[in-house]
Amino acid sequence: MEHWLEKYSHYLAVEKGLSRNTLDSYRRDLNNFFLFLDREKVSSPADVNRDLVTRYLLSLKEAGRAASTISRNVASIRSFFNFLVQEDLIEDNPAQLVKAPRIEKKLPRVLTTEEVDRLLQQPRDDGQAGLRDKAMLELLYASGIRVSELVSLNVTDFSPEVGYLRCRGKGMKERIVPVGSVAVKCVNEYLHNSRQKMLKRKEEKALFLNHHGRRLTRQGLWKILKKYARQSELNGEVTPHTLRHSFATHLLENGADLRSVQEMLGHSDISTTQIYTQIAQRKIREVYDKTHPRA
Is the pTM of this model over 0.70? Predict the structure, then answer.
């Protein structure tokens, strides 16, 4: 099993271009499944059948695992055995007909425009870190990019003259995202008045730097955002993805078409983007109920 897991991991990394986090998730799920197979005295992929897969998933349910976790395990196991079928190691995928549990989709948290304004006003623009933080938060909300995409940006990915950003999303797929004038102004101020002072090595390409003059990490950005969310007294947890959700929802509320939002977010499937239409429709209903005299 381990031999084929290594080959499968290489396939996902090289041919599918999956991220390190996704690869780790697949490996973790499959290693746990292999432990179950060891206890069942099953050592060959050819000996795995639908009944074994089903019993494993039931063991996860009995252990109190969430439906989303079980569903992810189904996807991991099914994908692994699909690979083995492609490699002609087995004839049929034992997980092909196994049903994943239905997951109740919760609508993501979205900030109001007033809450976004409060958050973006928090960083002070009279110091190096403040200018950087202001630029990062404005850019997150203006572009809707993921936190991993933001911290991987290089200086050359930002084009202030035309107001566009080049970013690399999941699977290293590159896309061009428009950036509003306010964010462009803030990033320019950071570049001219802060980044040069924070820079320790001329060869550093990262757009956003930490206090060591190196590329800011995901964890660093999360801590920064958490501080400003606390200062702005926003209720509930605010994450970089909250700004991404808010970006998409506010665009749709103001008339943007779904396909354009999908392109900007870098979603490969438009069904992933459609969740934001539900949030926008809910907002419209709330406005109607509050303002129509016969609501």
Answer: no
